[in-house]
Structure formats: structure tokens, C-alpha cells
Specification:
303 residues; Rossmann fold; 37% helix; 17% strand
Length: 303
């Protein structure tokens, strides 16, 4: 099986690349870096600019699976209008150019895996969010809606399309987990805002497992919440993290302070989604990590 990954240098892309290489699959990674030196050994780097099909488009006729994970990181600074436009362009433009490449050939990939996020639902409060829940109306929700729509045309070309509404991915050494851990390492861990916002987490092992499951099962199509079955509130997650690290949980960070420091980006930590993977569970996927403490111990406790 030949697999083409766009956005393959990030956390999920790298993990999936290793997974498929270990299974003996042929993996091509569309990269803007101009060099395959930083890619996992065995992966084939192919240069692209995410705007045109020049230099790589012919690959679309050969591959069986396309996985689109492109998108500029939402963290790393305040959301200026310029950055928000980059968030948008990096997601929507790349999806459209993948579709353009598909149009050029009679032979199509069997499946297209399209990345999205649970931000699709907006701030859901305490409402349980399944895949049939409506989208939100804020910037992140609108971004996710358009992100998903960028490759919808594949369905009209007879390509099975899977959309991943991914939650907070927990992985060893990952930026998100490191940011969650740092305050506790410094003995200043505590709830963010009210602490009642929901954290739709998922262990990286289940990201890989679920994507592989969805690719392999030909009846699986449409949107899937890529989250663990048991989301938790921020305060519960924080207390568990403090207990595992042997650190206190005592210093709350007020919502107004986060809004002043982070601006609109504060939505990433002050709002949440009580998302559950209804369609994955109904489809028969069995999670390795359903409970957050087991997931955190797997990643943080060695020996």
C-alpha cells in the first residue's frame, strides 16, 4: 500500500509515518523543507509548496491512501489578524490543491483522511458532543468547518473520505503535554480559569490505532471524533497530573489574566468540548487508553 501524507512532519504525521513504515508500507511525505534529512528513515520526501501540483501531482495516480494533516500551529503567540489568515490559508489552500491533483487522473486513491479538530463544535459547555452535534460559530469553529469542506469534493469523485475531529493529543515529549506539565514542575500548578471546562484528550497510541482502523475498514466514512471515551474537566486532569508528578495543585490562573496575556488564543485553554468518539465506538474500535490517569501514567511514569 502506498500512502501520501501532507503535513507529515508534525506530531501525528511523524507517528503515523513510523507506524506505516513498520507495517511495510510505502510512505511519501509532502514537505516544504526541501530535504528529506529530517524525515523518518525509509520515508520518501517530496517537495511541494501547498499551492500548486507542480513537481508532485503525478504521485496522486499511484497512491492508495492520502492523509491530509496540514495546518499552521495554533499555539506560539497571540492571534493577530495576520496569523489567523495564515491558519486559514495553510489549511484550506492545501486541501484544495490535493483535490486539484486528484482531478487530473482517472485512478483515484481509495481513501482520503482529512484532519480537523474538536474546535468544530465551539465551546460546548457541559453538553456531550457527538459527531452529529452542530458546529459552533466562533473563529475556530468556522476554521474547522472550512477545513473539512476543503476536500469534500473527493466524495463526488468516488473517494471514501474520513474526517478526524481531533482532541488534545497526549504524547511523550509533545508540546501540549510539556506545556501542561511545566507549571507543576515549577510548583505553581492549578486550575486554568474555572477549571470546569472539558478536556477532550486522546493518547497518541489511540490516534495511530484509530486512523489505521478507519483506513482499513471500508465502511467507515464521514466525521469521527478522535478523542478518548472519557473526557475530563480541566481541574480533574490537573489534580491527576499533580498527583503523578508529586507536585501541589493550588494556584489558580484567573480567566481574565489568561485573556490579557493570550488574547483570543486563550480560548484554547478556557473553553472546551465534552466530545465523545461515538462513531468510533459504534464501529468497533477498542481504545487502548479510555481513562486519563492510565494515559498519563503511561507517558510520564517510567520503570
Amino acid at each position: 500500500m502506498k500512502i501520501l501524507i501532507a503535513g507529515g512532519s508534525g506530531l501525528i504525521g511523524t507517528a503515523l509515518t513510523h507506524h506505516y513504515l513498520q507495517k511495510g508500507q510505502e510512505v511519501y511525505i509532502l514537505t516544504r523543507r526541501g530535504s528529506a534529512a529530517a524525515l523518518p528513515a525509509g520515508a520518501k520526501g517530496v517537495a511541494w509548496d501547498a499551492r500548486t501540483t507542480s513537481g508532485w501531482g503525478d504521485l496522486m495516480e499511484e497512491v492508495d491512501v492520502v492523509i491530509n494533516l496540514t495546518g499552521e500551529n495554533l499555539g506560539g503567540g497571540r492571534w493577530t489578524e495576520e496569523r489567523k489568515q495564515r491558519f486559514y490559508n495553510s489549511r484550506i489552500q492545501s486541501g484544495k490543491v490535493l483535490i486539484e491533483a486528484m482531478r487530473q487522473f482517472a485512478r483515484k486513491p481509495a481513501v482520503l483522511v482529512q484532519s480537523s479538530a474538536v474546535g468544530y463544535y465551539g465551546d460546548g459547555g457541559d453538553q456531550v458532543l457527538e459527531e452529529s452535534s452542530p458546529p459552533g460559530k466562533d473563529f475556530l469553529a468556522r476554521l474547522c468547518v472550512d477545513w473539512e469542506e476543503s476536500t469534500r469534493e473527493a466524495e463526488f469523485m468516488g473517494v471514501r473520505r474520513v474526517v478526524l475531529r481531533t482532541g488534545v493529543v497526549l504524547a511523550e515529549g509533545a508540546e501540549v503535554l510539556n506545556r501542561l506539565i511545566l507549571p507543576f514542575r515549577l510548583f505553581v500548578g492549578g486550575p486554568l480559569g474555572s477549571g470546569r471546562q472539558w478536556l477532550p484528550w486522546i493518547h497518541i497510541a489511540d490516534v495511530i490505532g484509530a486512523v489505521d482502523f478507519l483506513v482499513e475498514h471500508e465502511t467507515m466514512a464521514g466525521a469521527f471524533n478522535l478523542t478518548a471515551p472519557q473526557p475530563v474537566q480541566n481541574a480533574t486532569f490537573g489534580r491527576t497530573l499533580a498527583r503523578i508528578l508529586g507536585r501541589p495543585y493550588w494556584l489558580p490562573v484567573p480567566a481574565f489574566a489568561l485573556k490579557i496575556i493570550l488574547g483570543e488564543m486563550s480560548k484554547l485553554v478556557l473553553e472546551g468540548q465534552r466530545a465523545v468518539p461515538r462513531r468510533l465506538l459504534d464501529g468497533g474500535y477498542i481504545f487502548r487508553f479510555s481513562e486519563h490517569e492510565a494515559a498519563l501514567r503511561d507517558l510520564l511514569v517510567k520503570g
